[in-house]
Amino acid sequence: MNKLLASLAAAGGAILLTAGSAWSQARDIVIGVQCDRTGATQTVGVFFCPGVHDYTDLVNSKGGIEGRRVRAMEIDHEYKVPAGVESYERHKKEGAVSVLLYGTPHVQALTAKMAEDKIPGTSPGFGSAASADGMRYPYLFPIAASYWSQAAASVHFAKDRLGGSLRGKKIAYLFFDNPAGKEPLPVLEDLAKLEGFELRTFAVPAPGVEMGPQVLDITQRYRADFVVTHLFGRSPSVSIKELKRVGFPLSKVVAFVWGSSEADLDAAGGAAVAEGYNTLQFAGVGTDYAVHREIREMYQKANKQPPREMNSTVYYNRGIFHMAVHLEALRNALKAKGAQATITGADMKTGFESIKGVTLGGLMPPLQITPTDHEGGGWIQVFTVKGGKLTKTTDWFRAYPDVIKKHVEADGKKS
Prior knowledge:
By secondary structure, the chain is of the alpha/beta class. The chain contains 14 helices and 12 strands. The protein has 2 domains: 2-145 and 286-362, Rossmann fold, CATH 3.40.50.2300; 147-281 and 380-414, Response regulator (Rossmann fold). It has helices at residues 2-13, 42-61, 81-93, 104-117, 147-161, 179-182, 185-195, 212-221, 235-245, 262-267, 290-301, 313-337, 345-352, 401-414; strands at residues 29-35, 70-76, 99-100, 121-122, 140-141, 170-176, 198-204, 226-230, 253-255, 278-281, 381-386, 389-392. Strands 7-6-8-9-10-11-12 form a 7-stranded mixed sheet, sandwiched between helices. A 5-stranded parallel sheet has the order 2-1-3-4-5. Helix 2 links the parallel strand 1 (29-35) and strand 2 (70-76). The protein is globular and about 65 Å long. The chain starts with a helix and ends with a helix.
């Protein structure tokens, strides 16, 4: 409990930059923010969560949402499920109208509770791929490419890189041996049959810091033409170093979204070591977006230096993206009910399901969230390490939507 209270106190300090405004007489609107700044995935949280707060502060500095100030109430759950459930209850008690979830185990623990309470939660790039089905999961919004969509995008990218055909090719799937790592397997197996390639899987046991035998199998025994990786934590950097060590071209590797940050490249020995490495992204990478300029200007007006976290743009930008979707849902809800109205979780659900065409100058994909599609389309970009930095290789695309739809519908028939 002391840890949770400390997290709340820290979160309160996150909004001090907000400029004074003539706020609506209605009270602030609370959005719950789950985070991990001190636990097993802190290498994500320490960059992601500042992005959430900076974007919230920026919006508040411009007058908020329809004249209402937003309070991003962060609690650090240390990537522990009991603490995550407790943080959700505290958010609910504080009147949160929606919650930014953090972590697949936490999504699994809270999905039924959110539906019962009618409080929507978001899980971009993690959670359950089947939750794209808004009819089965009315209060869970993945809002970004699921692991199924990432698998499809990886195969599409490999096909493009290997000359437009995968027939007779060998693709290796190197994955963290847990439920999240296994989730894409049915889609990959379907695509192997559809495109005529051979698929072989290589599991990496926790904690994921040793995969020399798997890499030798991939490169010297299986002799893969392309490698798709689905790793997280310290393991992405290990995969880069091991594949580089045996001479496999990193231009024929593509990583799912949790093996795709600047921190992974640094841990592998720097971007020079990772030259050619391809990464999937569900939010833009880099600082060449108007929202970055506006955040820096906000700090300058407050006589403060922009935070160093802005430089780790993969996770920082995902924080911006994640909160931007919540604030757009709130905007839709307030427009529908009136700026002074009391907004409920049910109102926010409708607000999420009305999102279309908000891109933040390209930082966000062209989402269209509907009552039936809570994923928003499953959009992906590929960024490649070139000249020491992550450089955009593709525009937004989605792959094999009919295959993804088939698996979503098949999962629904199981229940």
